[in-house]
Design goal:
The chain has 108 residues and is an alpha+beta fold. Helices cover 31% and strands 23% of the residues. The protein has a three-stranded antiparallel β-sheet, covered by helices on one side. Strands 2-3-6 form a three-stranded antiparallel β-sheet, with helices on one face. The termini are far apart.
């Protein structure tokens, strides 16, 4: 439950940021780092269970993609954003994959 709280709080924050503020300041790396902070704030957190896959647009099609400063894409409203992440807690380990679209999807 703790990990679900962290993930839901982070997802709500991201949606608000992208929808209300245009997300100019959110990238694959900064979003993954912020999710890690939400998890660390949970009681009994022992860190991430694995490195977060944070991928926007075409990067989401790359198996086990890990953004670097050279590939770090800005998160916007015009494509899909996929995050595969997990937390380690005294009570167990999680592995969660979610896909978001913050804009108005097209037929493409």
């Amino acid at each position: 439950i703790r990990d679900a709280v962290a993930l839901c709080d982070w997802a709500a924050m991201m949606e608000e940021q992208v929808q209300d503020y245009g997300a100019e300041n959110w990238t694959e790396i900064s979003a993954a780092n912020r999710l890690a902070v939400y998890r660390e704030e949970q009681e009994d957190s022992r860190g991430l269970s694995f490195g977060t896959i944070s991928a926007f647009g075409p990067n989401g099609a790359i198996i086990h993609y890990s953004p670097t400063p050279d590939t770090d894409s800005s998160i916007a409203r015009d494509s899909l954003y996929m995050v595969d992440s997990g937390g380690q807690y005294l009570q167990g380990t999680t592995d969660v994959t979610r896909t978001f679209h913050y804009g108005e999807p097209t037929q493409e």
